[in-house]
Amino acid sequence: MIKKLFFVSSLLWMMVITANGQPQNRTPEERAKRQTDLIVETTGCDAATKAKVEAISLKYAKEMSALFEKAQDRDALREPMTELRNKQDADLKGVLTADQYAKYKAKQEEMRKARGGGGPR
Questions:
Q1: DSSP 58-76
Q2: What is the pLDDT of residues 63-79, one digit of tens each?
Q3: pLDDT of res. 10
């Protein structure tokens, strides 16, 4: 009986670990919505600004997806992804107030440090 319980328990843990290790293949629309929600939550921007942020997020999520599809390796993605992020930041800076943009950048830095990458970008 104990062997069966151990076996079933082991199987359940392997399923949980395997499921958590799967990549999150989100669509560009899903990624854009997540980013928009994060920016709105962080900055407290109004509905009109949210619509602009949503359009910017979707535009760059689609461009990034296109890069991922044609990239051969991660190193080849580094420079084009950095360029896209810089362009997106510039577009967001034009839509958000200076205070909102500062909050957004602070949240990005906080998230970067939480992931273990605290270096400047």
A1: HHHHHHHHHHHHH-SSHHH
A2: 999 988 887 777 888 88
A3: 59
pTM of the model: 0.72
Task: Give the C-alpha separation, 72 to 64, whole Å.
Answer: 14
Q: What residues contact residue 39 under an 8 Å CB cut-off, 6+ apart?
A: 45, 53, 57, 92, 96, 104
Q: Containing H/E element for 98?
A: helix 98-115
Distances (CA, A) of 91 to 2, 17, 79, 87, 113: 60, 39, 19, 6, 24
Of 14-23, 38-47, 51-60, 74-83, the one with minimum mean pLDDT is: 14-23
Identify each DSSP E strand in the chain by its residue range.
none
The answer to whether 40 and 53 are in contact (CB under 8 A) is yes
Burial of residue 89, with CB atoms counted within 10 A of its CB: 0-12 exposed, 13-18 middle, 19 or more buried: middle
